């Protein structure tokens, strides 16, 4: 008789959820198997295997580890019904976004979770988050890459850590939560699994030569000249809806020309968390965008923007192909506004 329980792979990578107190501060020490012991009652709806490719504070996780996780999921994809990754919170949104681009069109759920307190403390959010994640990964409606945290499921490209200590650390930016999880029940706000028409695809390349530059009042455009030899793309985190200043000994305008003439990517984003960029509104944005045909991130999170640029550049250096890939909606990452649609055409 076939069991109704789903087969889940729990992937432990370290983070606060697996940490213990030491003289040097919290350090990941709890093993994957020990983490699972705290997920009471999961045996009713899933069987779980565990694996631990590394055990790190998420501050130390970057593109190498994202590729490792995507490769592990690809290797095990046909064996399991779903995947739960235990991860530190500090770079969790980057990992979730990166995996959204490295593993696309997955009808199987890939869940990333963690906690603000270690799982072995008497009072902690870790046990609930882990149990919710296993429950969500075992649901027939779940699919793709999502963060499950604080009772919510958030699309992997829309999550941002907005609180450094509170249990409700993550928010979904410019997009609704996928679902809510409470007392073992899941309420889906977005149930679109049946709309996946393409087979799952895995990618194995990222271009790490991408810089995120945050503008500050008085910054001189010469900074771009110093950075030019080292990067293939720069994402400029501008003020408000987006624009570049016109002051300084070396104006940004001249430096942008150097980058674009060399075929490098200049992407404009905003420092404002909600509502996104729109460079067409003000002269400081409209002129430079039109003169250099600059791209902008619109309503995407910075985490998704950074990792999507890495992914798209990793597949192609051709400007037209890059633009097409960047503006294709993946895991709900960009709501194609009129400007974005025009870019994609």
Q: Could you explain how this protein is built, in words?
A:
- The chain has 345 residues and is an alpha/beta fold.
- Helices cover 28% and strands 21% of the residues.
- The chain contains 10 helices and 18 strands.
- It has helices at residues 32-36, 63-76, 92-102, 126-137, 222-227, 252-261, 283-292, 302-315, 319-326, 338-344; strands spanning 6-12, 19-20, 27-28, 46-51, 82-86, 103-104, 109-113, 144-149, 152-155, 159-161, 170-172, 179-182, 185-188, 201-202, 210-214, 233-238, 265-270, 295-296.
- The protein has an 8-stranded mixed β-sheet with strand order 4-1-5-7-8-9-12-13, with helices on both faces. Strands 15-16-17-18 form a 4-stranded parallel β-sheet, sandwiched between helices. Strands 2-3 form a two-stranded antiparallel ribbon.
- Helix 7 (283-292) links the parallel strand 17 and strand 18 (295-296).
- Helix 2 packs across helix 3 (92-102) and helix 3 runs parallel beside helix 8.
- The chain is globular.
- The model has no long low-confidence stretch (mean pLDDT 93).
- Biggest β-sheet: strands ordered side by side in the sheet: 4-1-5-7-8-9-12-13
Radius of gyration, CA atoms, in whole angstroms? 21 Å
For the record, give the distance between the C-alpha atoms at the N and C termini, rounded to a whole number: 52 Å
**Roughly what is the average pLDDT, rounded to an integer?**
93
Number of strands: 18
Number of helices: 10
